[in-house]
Design a protein that fits this description.
With 87 residues, the chain is an alpha+beta fold. It has one domain. The protein has four helices and four strands. The chain has a four-stranded antiparallel β-sheet. The chain is globular and about 30 Å long. The chain starts with a helix and ends with a strand.
């Protein structure tokens, strides 16, 4: 699994608005707090429509997240957390 700090750098480089860590947000430790309202992820509406979900899962940003050993979980309409997969 890629180090969290390196994944955060890579996401910022891709244009994702990384807000901080999940600890800074006030949830469980170990994740990355990202915005769904601005930056690259704003172009993928996190609705439950099949088309929106399909577009995100085929995206380069999701490919980076998955290959790094993480997954994205929507928290609310404008916030998502990226968590490491358990081994």
């Amino acid at each position: 699994m890629k180090k969290r700090s390196k994944l955060m750098e890579d996401l910022i480089w891709m244009g994702v608005e990384v807000c901080g860590t999940t600890e800074e947000f006030g949830t469980s430790a170990g994740g990355i707090w990202v915005s769904l309202e601005s930056g690259l992820l704003a172009s993928y509406p996190m609705s439950y429509s099949p088309a929106a979900i399909d577009a995100f899962y085929k995206s380069d940003v999701n490919n980076l997240i998955e290959k790094s050993g993480y997954f994205l979980e929507a928290y609310d309409g404008g916030t998502a957390m990226i968590w490491g997969r358990k081994k």
